[in-house]
Amino acid sequence: MNDTKDRLRRLMVESLRLDIAPEAIPDTNLRDAVGIDSVMGLEFLIWVENEFGIQIQDEDLSVELVDSLDALAAYVDERAAEAAAARG
Hints:
- The protein is an all-alpha fold.
- The protein has one domain: Orthogonal Bundle (Non-ribosomal Peptide Synthetase Peptidyl Carrier Protein, Chain A).
- About 65% of the residues lie in helices and about 0% in strands.
- Helix 1 crosses helix 3.
- The longest helix is centred in the C-terminal third of the chain and has 19 residues, at about 70-85.
- The two termini are about 20 Å apart.
């Protein structure tokens, strides 16, 4: 999962045009640490979908997905595994 979290950190900096190093992004409390609002959160999740080739289900959208790299990385890994299994 560390690779996924590293990719998410880089993607967050790129997609939200943050002026911080990816390594400076913490694992949790991202909304406060990085200043993510709801619009930024949705924009970031769209980038995540494109980067990882997954679709985030509407019922899975939550503040926790945008506030915790641990939760988001686990979700992305799970969805990517499901997508790979579906492709055979």
